[in-house]
Amino acid sequence: MSQLLTIGDKIDIEIENKRNPHESKVLYSQVVEFGNNTIFIAVPMTKGLEYPLRNKQKINIIFYNEKGVFSFLAECVARKKVDQLDVFEIYQLAEPRKKQRREYFRLRYMIKSTIKSLEKDTFSKGLTLDISGGGMKVLADKSFFVGEKVESTLFLEEETVSVASIVIRSYKRTENNQFELGIKFNDIGEQTRNSIIAFIFQKQGELRKKGLV
């Protein structure tokens, strides 16, 4: 674990909603210290408020590094103090596994983008509605058909990335005559995917500090 997580690393804590998995709660914390087969984490936060964990509560720990996005199942042991700081001690129940593309966290965030058809002469400026390491939802000025191969370009703050993609959903918004597209990144290099994921984690952290997520 020490090769993947280090003190100070930011982590997400997913609390599963068994009745409706799509409404699972995501909290934010960071690694404070390592114990004997346990990890001490800061008190989790959500929308700027503390969210206490229960003893023996099962949680999923999600974290990102240069090797990708990883997760593992853990159990809350107890609330304690480390150097006068309130922390929770958690016990790792399973080895970290690299998350698959379908499991990538999706962030609601607007950035400029462009969509260029690889099958016909269509080009459109766009604005993302959400984005993940596996795809995005975007508002476009032009229409594209489901199954159409396109090149998606994302203007991240420090770099611009282009990805071969495919349109998996498309419908016209009658109120503004724009088109809402579901885009799947079809052929993406690991470095490009990691750049997108790093951007998502950065923005997630900024929103977290403002108490917006």
UniProtKB/TrEMBL annotation:
* Stored InterPro entries: PilZ_domain, T3SS_YcgR_PilZN
A GO molecular-function term, please? cyclic-di-GMP binding
User: Type III secretion system flagellar brake protein YcgR PilZN domain: which residues?
Assistant: 7-86
**What keywords does the record list, in alphabetical order?**
Cell projection, Cilium, Flagellum
Q: What is this protein called?
A: C-di-GMP-binding flagellar brake protein YcgR, contains PilZNR and PilZ domains
Q: Which residues form the PilZ domain?
A: 100-202
Q: Which Pfam families match?
A: PilZ, PilZNR
Read off the SUPFAM superfamilies from this record.
PilZ domain-like (SSF141371)
Which domain of life does the UniProt lineage start with? Answer: Bacteria
